[in-house]
Amino acid sequence: MPELSLILFGPPGAGKGTQADRLRIDFRLPFISTGDMLRNNVKDNTELGLEARKFMDAGDLVPDELILAMVGERLKEPDSEDGFILDGFPRTYEQALALDQLLSERGRRITAAILVDVPDEAVVRRLSGRRVCVKAGHNYHVDFDPPKHDAVCDQDGSRLIQRDDDKPDVVRNRLMVYHSQTEPLISYYDEQGVMRRIDGTRSPDEVHDHIRAVIATLRLEDDV
Ligand code: AP5
């Protein structure tokens, strides 16, 4: 099976985590989310978590050096030798350049950067209604994807809460940060010929089908 090194990116609330839950079942590729890794560090009160929290609570990016050290360690683990799906990384030019460097040292390159695209007004609607479970971070939405029982996770029975960074003023800042620091990566990956765009305004099932079709095509192209 050819190696697939994929990046899943897009604005906050585009549905990356929702798709991650589905894709990790479909593909035997490790799913590496820098947001989840940081939240686990915050939960465990690690040094990194304590440092990262102030940036996350404000909706700002955690400094590149902290992120690069964390991701560099993660990509050394044996499960990512045959490929990976990265979610929420890279988010700056510096991170993108560092990732390219790290991969080229191993004779590898990014197979595709998959952009899940959603306009700002939909992001605000999605994040204001998002609920996540305290145990594993499973995602719900009060209107678009409600749990079967109010405020209880369908998958593990734990309590559902609203994320601290889903408050309206923090969401506005996250969107601003996305447009100024992460969106420019679209042209970076376009120039490399690896950008694939997905319409994230469609239903979660349709977005999932589209991403699966893109990945299946990439696998076929690599087989040829
Ligand atoms: P991170 O956790 O990566 O947050 P994000 O990119 O802002 O993305 P979200 O998790 O908010 O949204 P999502 O796209 O996963 O959407 P979801 O599926 O939940 O990062 C958090 C923070 O960590 C950052 O702000 C930063 O501080 C720091 N950080 C992380 N990585 C970093 C890095 N590389 N460098 C520096 N700092 C970093 O969906 C949202 C809602 O919409 C849910 O309720 C869901 O049910 C609903 N929904 C999903 N899909 C659909 C659909 N198709 N239709 C209708 N509703 C939908």
Description:
The structure is a single chain. With 224 residues, the protein is an alpha/beta fold. The chain has a domain at 4-30 and 77-118 and 172-223: Rossmann fold. Helix content is 49%, strand content 15%. It has helices at 16-26, 34-43, 47-58, 64-75, 93-105, 120-129, 168-182, 185-191, 204-223, and strands at residues 4-9, 31-33, 83-87, 112-117, 130-133, 139-141, 160-161, 195-199. Strands 2-3-1-4-8 form a five-stranded parallel β-sheet, with helices on both faces. A three-stranded antiparallel β-sheet has the order 6-5-7. A hairpin with a 5-residue loop joins strand 5 and strand 6 (139-141). Helix 6 (120-129) crosses helix 7 (168-182). The longest helix is centred in the C-terminal third of the chain and has 20 residues, at 204-223. It is globular. The N and C termini lie close together (12 Å). The relative contact order is 0.19. The model has no long low-confidence stretch (mean pLDDT 93).
